[in-house]
Amino acid sequence: MTIALETRGLEKSFGGLRVTRDLSLKVEQGARHALIGPNGAGKTTVINLLTGVLKPNAGQILLEGNDITNLAVHKRVLRGLSRTFQINQLYADLTPLETIGLAVSERLGRGGDWWRRMGTRNDVNEEIAETLGRFHLLDVMNEPTATLPYGKQRLLEIAVAIATKPRVLLLDEPAAGVPESERHDILAAVAALPRDVTVLLIEHDMDLVFSFADRISVLVNGAMLVEGPPDEVARDPQVKAVYLGEAADV
Amino acid sequence: MTAVSDVSSHAIARARWRPAEIAFWVLAASCAFLFPSRYLIMTDILRLALFTLSLDLILGYAGIVSLGHAAFFGVGAYSAGLLALHGIINEPVIALVVAGLVAMVLGFLTSFLVIRGVDLTRLMVTLGIALLLEALAERFSNITGGTDGLQGIEMQPILGLFAFDMFGKTGFFYSLIVLFLLFLLARRIVNSPFGLSLRAIKNNPLRASAIGVPVNRRLIAIYTVAAFYAGIAGALFTQTTALASLDVFSFERSADLMLVLVIGGTGYLYGGLIGAVVFKMLQELFQTITPQYWLFWIGLVLVVMVLIGRERIHRWVLWGPNLIIRQVFGRKAGVAVPESDAP
After folding, report:
1. CB B158 within 8 A of CB B93
2. What's the helix, strand, coil split of chain B in %, to 5?
3. DSSP one-letter code for B158
4. Which residue among A73, A102, A126 places its CB closest to the CB of B197?
5. How far apart are CA A22 and CA B219, in angstroms?
6. Distance of alpha carbon B71 from alpha carbon B78, whole angstroms
7. Which of B88, B80, B52 shows the shortest CA–CA distance to B256?
8. DSSP-assigned letters across all residues of B96-154
9. Which of its termini does chain A have fewer beta carbons within 10 Å around, N or C?
10. Would the ipTM clear 0.95, i.e. be above it?
11. What digits encode the pLDDT tens for the residues A88-139?
12. Low-confidence residues of chain B, pLDDT below 70?
């Protein structure tokens, strides 16, 4: 099995607080891997380290065997590592067409093109149309994103990430805050992600995790507690104590 | 296939010329014939409009604040002055472009300092660079003429055909054409994929980089382009007034520029042009009423404007024209001012 994404002994501290402790994680090519953990386990920090927003104090990050630890954020994206955002960080006054157009233009190397107007390149247009169609956004492509229903916005969030043609996709709580009536669309979109894209799902929602993932890593206090297939993780007494126990308390 | 053509037509529609825009430029050109005795002030407005357009490119589109934009204006002004004074380049159009390029080089070199940090740092860095250049210009008075400025600049005819006249008619048309051409270029830039990526960076730079936008490289590019524009504005100043003195670098010039852009509104290109007209008219008006205290009134207008809200004022002002435009061109043709782009 080839490894798509790997971390080796990743460390991150904020002042005296160690938020990521000796984290070694291997995500196999084409896997549906989930990273779970209680609140404050350091999941967001892991995403920020993987995407390059934060620099680790120690350790390495490898994308398809290549060291990307010191690569800038946008360069990782062009190498094939994309993410979605948990909290809504879409461009409120851009339309879905423009948002997807942005991602497609950059991927095709047309983003610095200052002379041609948007919409005059066929290769770009075709890819925008294809992506919008796949995520059921064609009918709202010209509406400002802020005016879309929340479920559509979450779909757009995934669509932007897919428009960068990632080989590894980090999904940060894709269904967070989506009303029950619109959840189905999100789950379907997540399930329909192309098989050749490796997915690392960071999630709170246990239903989604167990229906989607073929491998689960449990993060507690910034360190890896358990890793294995879903049924094994579900039976693990440590996990029950730390994670499910906490959920039962709520 | 229809989806693709939809995408294309929606994307292109943003860049389409609206009737109100055409009306704006027709009106600007017709001013030449409506007010033949006011060429000097109108030329002044055009230069300021071009200078403000430059600030709008970085502030309105990329979100870079600057309190030292006069640095590039000044460099353009002195470059054009020195080129003409020493007869290095006698043809004004070529000299204009060269002066713009000199400012552009400076813009490129200083952009690396400016893109670091956040708004407050940027204000300080841009302010510092302008002050530095002003001090340098004073120190090397053997080149710049020091506090007296460059004396005895004589401009040759434009393209060897159109001589500058004492009423400023040539200067006005020259400035208008330069402004219009550079406006067209700016319009191209903001409607391109590059322009779209700038808007994304302005809204949320982290998100932009997560989509694959090389944020710093884009900021450097637009800052450099804006420096070129400001340099051209400065060069126009020297060429149409035959003057270049230390005040081209002054802090007041940079600060006024911010006022003008705030008056006109950021992020739709016309803000700088409308702001320049309103600012100069107010200045004229208040200077005739109270020559000493006109700044007081400008300040008052600004405060009132912020309190009422620019959007509301624009709606009041555009109410009349839009009524006519809609009658002639149909319902959807009116001019809308972007709502959420207040600085």
Report:
1. yes
2. 75, 0, 25
3. B
4. A102
5. 37
6. 11
7. B52
8. HHHHHHHHHHHHHHHHHHHSSS-HHHHHHHHHHHHHHHHHHHHHTHHHH-GGG------
9. C
10. no
11. 789 999 999 999 999 999 999 999 999 999 989 999 999 999 999 999 999 9
12. 1, 310-311, 314, 325, 328-343
Enter the CATH code of domain A3-249.
3.40.50.300
Q: Which of B12, B211, B213 to mutate to test the interface with A (most CBs of A within 10 A)?
A: B211
- The answer to whether B279 and B259 have CB atoms below 8 angstroms apart is yes
Amino acid identity, position A124: V
Strand order in the sheet with A168-172: A81-83, A168-172, A198-202, A32-36, A215-220, A223-228
Question: How does DSSP classify residue B334?
Answer: S
Answer whether B4 sits within 8 Å of A125, measured CB to CB.
Answer: yes
Give the angle subtended at the CA of B233 by the CAs of B227 and B239, to the nearest 5°: 135
End-to-end Cα distance, chain B: 40
At residue B292, what is the residue type? Answer: Q
Helix B251-264 vs helix B39-56: crossing angle, to nearest 10: 80
Q: A111: helix, coil or strand?
A: coil
> Which token pair is B295?
């700044």
What is the total residue count of chain A?
Answer: 250
Contacts of A103 in chain B (CB under 8 A): 211-212
Nearest CA to CA, how far is A77 from chain B (Å)?
A: 5
Radius of gyration of chain A (CA): 19
pTM above threshold 0.95: no
